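Hi W.,

Here's what went into the run:
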Amino acid sequence: MSETILIIGACGQIGTELTQKLREIHGTNNVIASDIREGSDEFTKSGPFEIIDATNREQIFSVVQKYKVSQVYLMAAMLSATAEKIPQKAWDLNMTSLLIILDLAKEKHIQRVYWPSSMAVFGNTSPKVDTPQKTIMEPSTVYGISKVAGEHWCNYYHEKFGVDVRSIRYPGIISWKTKPGGGTTDYAVDIYFKAKQEGSYECFLDKNTRLPMMYMNDAINATIQLMEAESSSIKIRTSYNLTAMSFTPEEITSEIKKHIPDFNISYKPDFRQDIANSWPQIIDDSHARNDWNWQHEYNLELMTKEMLKNI
Ligand code: SER
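Here's what came out:
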């Protein structure tokens, strides 16, 4: 059956590349991009685009009806660092939008939902190395609290109403087309831009802070692979652990220096250090690998080559 897909938050870091890829697969006119504001002309005029406030049910519902949308990717969210500054707004955006979409799916207006969770669901009391799929989850950030709650809402709607909702706990996502905004892992994107454009970077995390990460191409492939998997192979309806690599600011710096030997880094940790310290260092994503054959392609070396080539 042909799908009509709505992406909410299509101008964001992941949304931009997800929209492009889904348009290649399903055809431009079957993939409706939407965001709270217009993106670049190139993006908003290259296919169907609608202005949607993700917390406004009427707006979403009218677009769903207009295009007979069958699948929704809900990518609009406030990330960890920004959410600490405006907690109530973050909670409202992250939760209200999800409950609207789950309700539309419960009412059978849409058939399948994708919603991103994050490694931020884990906290100081979770194991930091090989963090299991199921373990203690006591997040220390507003963002993490919203993601844990969201995961349980997804599972609840699946169990109770048969809603086909699928989710991934993303690690830090690294990309060059669209920059992330307001996350704790943003340093791993900024560092490439500064290395290339200015030759130096002041890092807001300490040199030994190890975090799980992934190159955008892998994140997009994983997302689409999960959405295309047979429903019966999806055993987890909260959200899947997922990772590709883990590194520290010091390690990414050495990799960049292989290409830009004079690159200079300094460290000035800020409030984001506490957030990073509460997250896993290395994640165990064996459930995703077993249930729907997840495999990553990019490691630190390959990703660094791609990033520096494209910036
Ligand atoms: N990249 C996100 C953040 O730093 C984690 O999900 O907030």
